[in-house]
Please model this.
Amino acid sequence: MNRTQRAAGAVVGSAVGDALGAPYEFGPAGAFSERFPPAAGPGGMRAGGGWDAGEATDDTQMAVHLAESLLERGGLDLPDVFARFRRWAADDPKDIGLQTEDVLTNGMPWDLAAAVHFQVNLRAAGNGSLMRAAGSAVYFAPAGPAATMDAARRIAALTHGDRAAWEGTAVLHELVRVALADGDPLDALPATLALVDAEHRERYAAVLAPDWHPGLATEPNGAVWPCLGSAVWALRGTSSFPDALRAAVDVGGDTDTVAAVTGALAGARYGFDAIPAHWTEPLHVPLPGGGGRVLRLPELLSLAERLGEGPPSR
Ligand SMILES: [Mg+2]
Model:
C-alpha cells in the first residue's frame, strides 16, 4: 500500500471516527452495537446529540485549522496555530472542550495561555490535544521520530499545560508515523515508550500494555491516558477499519474523540480504501473560524495529500 493511501486513511479516518462517535458522546458502553448489531454490517452514521449524520465535531475542526496552518505557513508556526484556534473558539463552535475553551479565551498570549491555565487549575491532562493529531502526524512523519514527537509536544502545549498531554500526543504522532512507513504501530510501542519522558513513561506503559482494556481505566476517557489506551486497544483487538471504529465507539464516554484517535491509527494502518464509502459519503466538517466553509471528502483528501508531502526541506 502506498503512503498516499495511508495518509488519506489517517486524515479521513480520524474525521470519520469523530463523526461516527459524536451522537454517542457521554453515553454508555455498547450503544453503537445496540443500534447497529455487528451481524448486520459495519453500521452507519446517524444524527444525535445535536449533530447531523456525518457531521464532524471540534476534534476534526481543530485538526483542519492546524493542518491549514502547517501548509500555509510552510511549517510549525505556533503563534499562527494559536491565532487560528482562537478565531475558531470565538466563532461559536457547537462543541469545545472546557480546558481548551478556557485556554483560548483567557486573553493570555500564545506562549503563556496553557501554562497559566495549568498553574491555576493543576489539571490539564484532557484528551484535547490528542484528538486533533491526525494531520500534523502525517505532515511531520517524513521528518522522522524525534522531529515528529517534538512538534507534537509543542502543538499540544498550546492548549495543554500538563506534560502528560504532550507525551500522549507525541506517542500518537509517532505511531501514525510508523504506520505510514508500512510498520506495525503495535510492534512499535516499546520503542515509542522509550522516547516518552521518563516521568510519564510508566503511566503510558500501563495503558498501552497488551493486557490493558478500557475496563481497567482509572479515570474517564476524556483524560489523555485512557483515551490513547482505548484507541490502541481497539486497534489491537480487531482486524479491520470498521471493526476498530466500532470497538472504539462502543467504549462509551468521550466516544467522538476515542474514535477520532482510533480512526487516525486504523486509517494509517489499513489505508483510505478500507474506510466504508457509506461513512465518507455523509462526512462533512463545518469550520467555525474558517469563513463559513464546510469541508467534505474531496477537501479532506486534498488536505491529506498536501500534508503527506511534509515540511519543505531546507
Ligand atoms: Mg468532539
User: Anything to note?
Assistant: Residues 57-59, 95, 256-257 surround magnesium ion (CB under 6 Å). The radius of gyration is 17 Å. The first helix runs from residue 3 to 21. The mean pLDDT is 96.
